[in-house]
């Protein structure tokens, strides 16, 4: 009979110590990882937009922290699909990452033959910002509150138009979510961007539109449009007198336009850790947060794990809304 070796109590402290050593080594690896060449921050949208502005605010300070320049590249086309594919198909070595927007979660339900899997092909880094959507009307429009608007819509179904910055964008989703929650019928009028739609509201060509708070704020302050409600969970700090959809009794109308950073799936865990670590520092600097908050934009800067959960939740939520409201890009 083979004699089994005795288990020594001395081995237990050794294993505990080994566990702490391994954990410390993993943390150190994340802290010590450094890029060996310039990094590329891909923006799938044109220069001058919100995503481009965020990228160009982040890049210099992130580059300084990592010891390599961060080069911002605008790769447009396909409503953001072309640039997003470039991010997710880049070498998974930690040297390429990029910005995604809320349409990243809805495109899987709207774009035929999407050339990537938004969950499997991405390594989330952090949710950078989010901003609610405001419903604004021409000052001469009869409805002064959301309740009055919904009453009008119920009396004359299918006759009141609302504008948005385009099919499948946050304003469109906000409008359709409101219609479902309130059981009203209104006509969606998509524009090629938020500015043309807002100009038509101001000119009285269309009575109202859903657009992100940061894009309508100056027109609200100037009295050119009247805000009726916002889709964020809480009232906006820059429009504290404007009630939320939830306050009006409408559920499931919490819609945001958001921006986050992802890398290709499979990048080294230590690269994910270091990139997130330095990004969090940059995003939480007063200069960045104050600039965003002045526009009504909330800085989030959450963990890669939390951002991954958020993306999956948004994909599921937008999918249900696309199906219920029969939303298309046409």
TrEMBL record:
The keyword Cytoplasm does not apply. It comes from the Bacteria. CDD domains: PBP2_Bug27 (cd13578). The keyword Mitochondrion does not apply. InterPro entries: BUG (IPR005064), Bug_dom1 (IPR042100). Pfam families: TctC. Residues 1-29 form the signal peptide. Keywords: Receptor, Signal. Belongs to the UPF0065 (bug) family. PANTHER family: BLR1237 PROTEIN (PTHR42928:SF5), TRICARBOXYLATE-BINDING PROTEIN (PTHR42928). This is Tripartite-type tricarboxylate transporter receptor subunit TctC. It comes from Aquamicrobium terrae.
């Amino acid at each position: 009979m083979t004699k089994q070796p005795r288990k020594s109590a001395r081995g237990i402290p050794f294993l505990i110590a080994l566990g702490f050593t391994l954990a410390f080594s993993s943390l150190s690896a994340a802290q010590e990882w450094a890029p060996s060449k310039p990094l590329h921050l891909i923006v799938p949208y044109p220069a001058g937009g919100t995503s481009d502005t965020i990228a160009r605010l982040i890049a210099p300070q992130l580059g300084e922290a990592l010891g390599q320049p961060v080069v911002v590249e605008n790769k447009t086309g396909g409503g953001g699909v072309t640039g997003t594919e470039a991010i997710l198909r880049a070498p998974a070595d930690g040297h390429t990452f990029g910005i995604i927007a809320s349409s990243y979660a809805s495109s899987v339900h709207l774009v035929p033959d999407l050339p990537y899997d938004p969950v499997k092909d991405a390594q989330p880094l952090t949710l950078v910002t989010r901003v609610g959507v405001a419903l604004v009307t021409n000052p001469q429009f009869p409805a002064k509150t959301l309740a009055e608007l919904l009453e009008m819509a119920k009396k004359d179904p299918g006759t009141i138009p609302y504008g948005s910055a385009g099919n499948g964008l946050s304003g469109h989703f906000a409008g359709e979510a409101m219609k479902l929650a309130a059981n009203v019928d209104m006509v969606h009028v998509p524009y090629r961007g938020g500015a043309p739609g807002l100009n038509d509201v101001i000119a009285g060509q269309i009575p109202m539109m859903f657009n992100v708070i940061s894009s309508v704020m100056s027109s609200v302050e100037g009295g050119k449009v009247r805000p009726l409600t916002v889709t964020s969970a809480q009232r906006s700090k820059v429009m504290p007198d404007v009630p939320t959809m939830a306050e009006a009794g409408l559920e499931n109308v919490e819609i945001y336009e958001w921006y986050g950073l992802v890398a290709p799936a499979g990048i080294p865990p230590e690269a994910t850790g270091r990139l997130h670590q330095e990004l969090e520092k940059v995003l939480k600097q007063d200069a960045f947060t104050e600039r965003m908050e002045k526009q009504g934009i909330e800085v989030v800067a959450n963990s890669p794990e939390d951002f991954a959960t958020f993306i999956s939740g948004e994909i599921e939520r937008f999918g249900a809304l696309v199906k219920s409201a029969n939303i298309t890009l046409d």
